[in-house]
Amino acid sequence: MKAYIFPGQGAQFVGMGKDLYENSPLAKELFEKANEIIGFRISDIMFGGTDEELKQTNVTQPAIFLHSVILAKVLGDDFKPEMVAGHSLGEFSALVAANALSFEDGLKLVIARANAMQKACELQPSTMAAILGLADEVVEQICAGIEEVVVPANYNCPGQLVISGSIEGIDKACEQLTAAGAKRALKLNVGGAFHSPLMEPAKVELQAAIEATAINAPVCPIYQNVNAQPTSDPAVIKENLIAQLTGAVKWTQTATNMIADGGNDFVEVGPGNVLQGLVKKVSREVQTSSASIA
């Protein structure tokens, strides 16, 4: 079965989407529509801006979303997903690509999400760290024993778990996880503690926007971050999207479940190839590739 997967924050690069804009009238039209909705020419930053400009949360999130969604739209009849999933932000791209959300509504939600997350980051200094080479259970146990806010945030693949929380909590956890045998405990250059309880203010803000948005049944099941389970029910999709901001991204479990349900050909739609690498860590048997226009 063909599984389409959509990347999240961190996959961006200067020049992303330029080939689509130059080679497809549909892509050009969608990029211009996005520029209007956003209120500035995000396409100019994507195609020829600086890394610094592209790294701003209010640019990064819509940029990755646009690259992914417009690529899926340009694929046209070649885009025939039997299952979809997206990593964090990528879940919104997956929903638009699978026709559960309109292009405009998806973009507006991503902008609202980026702004809400930015505000939550400014309320309390916080961060994330990648923990390599430890079993998930060990990381969970150590995080649970720390008095500060510190939680598992991204289950990326076996042996790679990103934790999220207050600066003090992350520092304590990194120290204890290194002592417990982690190969690396690497603090990440991020603006805040995504997928943790510290995103509660953003969740409250985004919840209203998600509840006011029409979501339809997707053309195929979507495996969502918070529970790694397939669903086509719009009410469940909304609940899971709201829970996603403060809940962990269960990517290891998502890839495992998609493979168990027959997914054997994973196509990454959007910038980079990070998700292909993560899927391969779950199973060497599956095929992976990047979507591209001929």
Automatic annotation (TrEMBL):
Question: Which reactions does this protein catalyse?
Answer: holo-[ACP] + malonyl-CoA = malonyl-[ACP] + CoA
Sorted UniProt keywords:
Acyltransferase, Transferase
Q: Which GO terms describe its molecular function?
A: [acyl-carrier-protein] S-malonyltransferase activity
Q: Which InterPro entries match?
A: Ac_transferase_dom_sf (IPR001227), Acyl_transferase_dom (IPR014043), Acyl_Trfase/lysoPLipase (IPR016035), Mal-CoA-ACP_Trans/PKS_FabD (IPR050858), Malonyl_CoA-ACP_transAc (IPR024925), Malonyl_CoA-ACP_transAc_FabD (IPR004410), Malonyl_transacylase_ACP-bd (IPR016036)
Q: Does the keyword NAD apply?
A: no
Tell whether Oxidoreductase is among the UniProt keywords: no
UniProt-listed SMART domains: PKS_AT
Belongs to which family? Belongs to the fabD family.
Name of the protein in question: Malonyl CoA-acyl carrier protein transacylase
The organism of origin for this protein? Pedobacter ureilyticus
Primary gene name: fabD
